[in-house]
């Protein structure tokens, strides 16, 4: 999987959009009706797929690769 074509699931894209908007894991969980542990699991997969190591990098790469997420990150 290359950085130019990460295959994120719809749920991972939802989590990434919330992350871009600056929400905490707890806030993301409440918003998406999932546990904080599940949010962490999604974030681990997102980090691996985007080849990043933290939330800031994920947000930056996510905004670059998925510009439409900005509309949902409010």
Task: Describe the protein's topology.
Elements: H1 10-20, H2 25-32, H3 36-50, H4 55-65, H5 69-72
Helix pairs in contact: 1-3, 1-4, 2-3, 3-4
Describe the structure.
- The chain contains 5 helices and no strands.
- It is mostly helical and 74 residues long.
- α1 crosses α3 and α1 crosses α4.
- The protein is globular and about 25 Å long.
- The chain starts with 9 loop residues before the first helix and ends with a helix.
- The mean pLDDT is 90.
Mean pLDDT: 90
What's the story with the biggest beta sheet? none
Could you say which overall geometry the principal axes of the C-alpha atoms support? globular
- Specify the number of helices: 5
Q: How far from one another are the termini?
A: 29 Å
């Amino acid at each position: 999987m290359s950085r130019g074509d990460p295959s994120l699931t719809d749920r991972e894209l939802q989590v990434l959009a919330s992350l871009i908007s600056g929400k905490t894991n707890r806030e993301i969980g409440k918003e998406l009706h999932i546990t904080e542990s599940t949010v962490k699991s999604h974030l681990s997969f997102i980090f691996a797929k985007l080849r990043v190591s933290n939330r800031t990098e994920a947000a930056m790469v996510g905004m670059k690769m998925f510009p439409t997420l900005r509309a949902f990150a409010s």
